[in-house]
Amino acid sequence: MRKITHLILGVTILSGLLMACDNAASENRSLVNILLVDAPGDFEQVWIEVLGVEILPAGSRGSAENASWIHLPYQAASNMVRISDLVNEERLLIGRTEIQSGMVSKIRLLLGNELYLIQDEIRIDLDKDSDFENKLEIDINVNALPGNSYDIYLDFDLARSVVRSSGGNYQLDPRIRAFESGVTAVIRGSILPRNVNSHVYVRSDTDTLTTLTGSNGGFYLQGIPPNDYQITIYAPEIYKDTAFNVSVQADTLLTVPTITLRPQLP
C-alpha cells in the first residue's frame, strides 16, 4: 500500500510539473495577425496572387539570435486578390499564428506570378520590377509581449507601385510599409464634392503619407506615427488646394471635419 501511495504522489507531482511547464510556455507566447491593406491607386482593378507571408520573430532567447522565419500560407478559396478593393476600412487577413514573445524584426509578403490590372475592360499583365523580391521584405520593430495580440498591417501603395515602363508596359514595383496598429494612429475624413478625386498628403518633419479619396469622397489613412502633421488636399484644377494642421497620438482615431473644396475664381 505504501508503494502505491508513493506512486500516486509521484504521478501527481509530475503532472503538476508538466502543467507548470505548459503554463510557463504559454505565458511566453504572443498572437500575431498579418493583414493587407491598400493605399488607392489610379486603376479600378489591380489583381495580385497572394501565396502567404513570412515573419521573423524572436529566437529562443527572446532576440534575433537563433531566430528563424515562420511561414504562414494564405488559405482561401482563391489566391487571387483584388488589392484595389482594400481601401478605406477594408482589410484582408493573410494569416495568424502564435510566436515566441520578443522582437519581430522583419516580415515578407509572398506573391505569385499572376499580377495584372484591368483598364478599359482589358487585362494588362504586370511585369516584375528587377528588385521585386527584395522589396517584398520589410523591416518592422514590434515588441511582442507575452499573452498579448498584435495586428501587423502591410500597406501596399498602389499609386506608387504600378508604374509604366519606357517600353509602354506596366510594371509592379512594390512599395510596401509595415506597421503595428497599437502604436500608430488613424486619420479619416470626407471631402466635398464627393465625385472629385483628390490626393491627400499627410506630412511631418520625418514622414509623408498619401492616399486618394474614394468614390464617396472619403479617405482613410492608417499607421500614422504619433506626431504633428500638415494635411494637404490637392484638388483638380477647378478647385483650390486646402491645407491644415493636426496632431495625433498612438492608438487613436482622428476624424477631421468634412472638407468642402472651394472653386477657383475665373
UniProtKB/TrEMBL annotation:
The domain of life is Bacteria
- Point out the signal peptide segment: 1-20
Keyword Signal in record: yes
Query: Which keywords accompany this UniProt record?
Result: Signal
Q: Name one Pfam family in it.
A: DUF4382
The record lists the membrane-crossing segments as: none
Ranges where the DUF4382 domain occurs = 31-174
Protein name in the entry = DUF4382 domain-containing protein
- Organism, by scientific name, is Cyclobacterium plantarum
